[in-house]
Amino acid sequence: MKKYFLLLNILLGAFYSNAQNAPVLKLQYHFPATNWEKEALPLGNGRIGAMVFGGVESDMIQMNEHSLWSGGPGKNPNYNGGHARTEEEVKQNLKNLRKALQDKMTQFTNQNAAYIDANGKVIAADYPPEDAMLRDYISALMGDRTDFGSYQSLGNIHITRSSTAAQVVDTAIRTYTNYHRELDIEHALSRVSYTQDGVNYLREYFISHPDNALVIRLTADQQGSLSRTIFITTPQTEINISAENGVITMTGKPADHKDTGLKFAQQIKVRPTGGMMRVEDNRILVENADEILILLSAATNYQQCKDNSFNYFYDHDPLIEVKGTIQKIADKRYEELLRNHISDYESLYNRMSFSLNDAYNTGNKTTDQLLTGYKNNTNTTAENLYLEQVYYQFGRYLLIASSRKNGLPANLQGIWANGLNPPWSADYHTNINVQMNYWLAEQTNLAECHLPVIEYTKSLVPRGRYTASHYYCKQDGSPVRGWVIHHENNIWGNTAPSNWYEGFYFPAAAAWMCQDIWEYYNFNQDKTFLEEYFPIMLDAALFWVDNLWLDSRDGTLVANPSYSPEHGPYSLGASCDQAIIAELFDMALKSAVILNKNIPEINEIVVAKNRLSGPKIGLAGQFMEWKDELLLDITGDNRHRHTNHLFWLHPGSQVVAGRSLQENLYAEAMKKTLNTRGDGGTGWSKAWKINFWARLHDGNHSHKLLEELLRESTLTNLFDTHPPFQIDGNFGATAGMTEMLVQSQGDYIELFPALPDKWKNGKFKGIKARSNFELSADWTDKKLQSLEIISHSGNVCKIKYEEISNYKIMQQNGKVVTPEIIDKNMVAFKTDSGTIYTVTK
Ligand code: FUC
After folding, report:
1. Which helix (H) or strand (E) is 539 found in, with range?
2. Which of 63, 485, 683, 765 is least crowded, fewest Cβ atoms below 10 Å from its Cβ?
3. 204 with 140: CB under 8 angstroms?
4. Atom of ligand 1 nearest to the CA of 423
5. How far apart are CA 24 and CA 342, in angstroms?
């Protein structure tokens, strides 16, 4: 045993002391977690999620299963996606509202249009508040949230030293020394080690995707030292727990579900080596073992419905599935399970790396110490850079852990949620949040992890068609085509608007979700994929072709009603809606060309696109949030967190700084808007601003926001906090940091568009660019040294970088490539698929 421990330490040592230039990326602490949100460490395989506390006397691992949701058809068999009122009622209201809003806007423009006075000052007013009549019309468009449901916790596994139950946290008196807890994000492996009564203990935890199981191993360096009690607790109330033959089984359903609804099942198999094992009161007691292996799997009978059956449940019993999973791995050696897990994880994680030459955890500080040092300016520069690097890869780690093929997408808390009522139901908010979760997916080379959100979008279409026909109509009252969703969504096909006056109205959500389809194609160039998903995009576009309103003030087409996300007020053609619709039309038209679609609908989209009221620059120089220039727009309205009206800059692609004069003007106006809004905001708001500033080519400003995010909106376990914990900020920040290195939204690859001064020297490997290029580069003193480009689809490679025309391009066989020189900072050359090109000075 001792020998084994030594071997293990050597192995782990190899992980840890990996030379100065490649510090191992991990989160580490010298105390067990007591707080779920701030301290526990996340593990996941896209279906099963766990938060590991790592207590000594009493360890707790809080568990999630990605489809454990209350509400929906399991609660109410007549669940209809949250729609309220009859079609006639809703439509009558919509017609009344549209007309009333047009009148209000016309009156506003006639009486309060902004102007520049004799002193050169912009005089502007705000839209008057909605009167009672308008409020009634608006309120009548709300949906019904009664059966929306919530993502919920499955339960907790406890591993205690004493045989008495339910002690969740350690006692105040420390009975141990050398405590170390970590999350190794390079191997998706958590470890806890400590010394107690002269014995060195080690626990390892991981969740394997290929074996669909959480694996925990407890070892000690002295034989017979492990006496532990293992049991389950859960906040779920409709459950049945039993234990026999070293296996604890839990089955149940969400409390609000009928017997015909969702069923969940979980099994925990305990496999000791040496010692004795017995069962007592549904708990498993192991005495004097040398090692304990714990295997857990869980499942539900949820099926993602993508048709009109609206049947969300499989017929089969999830317990049979779970038993099968456990049986398959019951006798597998730990090393084999671990190897399987690591090779699966590395196949994704290792595709991309990012390192800053000087980054190093000089003082071997724990993560909490690094965060404190970052806040208080007491870290060395190397430590700050190390923390940034860990934080960067933590975003990729979280995506791999919470979003895998055939699973549900990462929700507001990824796959982790505590209790039965997590914040905002840990749902899918589609007015920024779930989209932000996926900004990093393609660029950081995790295309497979992108698919769940695309499949999710597909699953919303059937009910979304119903919503379109039930809630919307053309200006003349005739039916609209297509599909639509709003800003809060669940796994049961909720597509109706929510019921919160200040934010429920966001029909541009479906259009925005289509961006993931387009981006997946754009990065991977998979035409079969585009062919399959094109109808979804086309129908989202046709919804808007039909649903747009002719603004009698200027004859342009606008969204009516329109509400700038969570900021309002209700008006016609707020910039966010207009920008998203224009982007969708653009994506649909580009896709039609790629797929050779000669259908009449394409022309309808072209006509509508040309008549869209476009976002514009205000008299005060800002990028306007509403169609009219409002005072709110000029003053920055209390630094509101939503800046969705800058959609064209990011994540959209209609404004690319440096591409044309007009776009440069827009970019300047957007800069002004961002400066007026200020750098503050919730976690995700700061993360978005990292991206905005990167696209505005101001790397130092992006970096400043990254610093603010790490200082103000990051918890001890590196989770982003709104507050509360909301995962979008983690994902958005990793995306933004990548945008600082490479951008490709403007029909060319732009290298180091926003490299901050603090990232003076470094390298990256495996960043993806649109048109399916994979890039690796290193830089010194902020100057490119060498670049390697892998062409995966044989497209023309157009690169923009300072004086790139002076660089030498070579094919992997040594052949020199003579590029077309567009200007001194931009070259283009043809590539062959599968070929590597190097660019050097
Ligand atoms: C959006 C944001 C809120 C919060 C919520 C989950 O509605 O405006 O700040 O992030 O999503």
Report:
1. helix 527-547
2. 765
3. no
4. 6
5. 15
pLDDT of residue 163: 60
Q: Rounded to the nearest whole angstrom, what is the distance from the C-alpha of residue 61 to the centroid of ligand 1?
A: 28
Instruction: Measure 424 CA to ligand 1 centroid, in angstroms.
Output: 8
Among 501, 726, 727, residue to substitute to test ligand 1 (most atoms within 8 Å of Cβ): 726
* pLDDT score for 636: 72
Write the CB contacts of 119 (distance below 8 Å, at least 6 apart in sequence): none
CA distance 88 to 155: 45
Residue 397 neighbours by CB under 8 Å, 6+ apart: 185, 188, 349
Q: C-alpha angle 437/443/447, rounded to 5°?
A: 75
- What is the distance of C-alpha 100 from the center of its chain? 38
Beta bridge partners of 840: 786, 808
Q: Alpha-carbon distance 274 to 296, whole Å? A: 21
What is the spatial distance between Cα 86 and Cα 95, in angstroms, rounded to a whole number? Answer: 14
4: which 2 tokens?
């084994």
The CA distance from 721 to 450, in Å, is: 23
Whether 196 and 56 have beta carbons less than 8 Å apart is answered as yes
Question: Quick one: which atom of ligand 1 is closest to the CA of 566?
Answer: 8
Model pLDDT, residue 635: 86
Tokens at 279, concatenated: 């069962």
pLDDT of amino acid 572: 98
Report phi then psi at 785, rounded to 5: -100, -60
Give the predicted TM-score (pTM) of the model.
0.97
412 Cα nearest atom in ligand 1: 6
Quote the tokens at residue 298.
Answer: 């869980």
Residues in the chain with pLDDT values less than 50: 1-20, 165-168
58 alpha carbon – ligand 1 mean position (Å) = 35
* Residue 325 neighbours by CB distance under 10 Å: 19
Using DSSP bridges, classify how beta strands 820-823 and 826-829 pair: parallel, antiparallel or unpaired. antiparallel
Q: How far apart are CA 136 and CA 94, in angstroms?
A: 11
The reported pLDDT for the residue numbered 647 is: 98
Phi, psi of 688 (to 5 degrees): -65, -40
Nearest CA to ligand 1 atom 8: 566
In the structure, which protein residues have their CB atom closer than 6 angstroms to any atom of ligand 1? Answer: 412, 424, 429, 431, 433, 503, 566, 641-642, 682, 684, 722, 726
Distance 684 CA to ligand 1 centre (A): 9
Residues sharing a CB contact under 8 Å with residue 660, sequence separation 6 or more, in sequence order: none
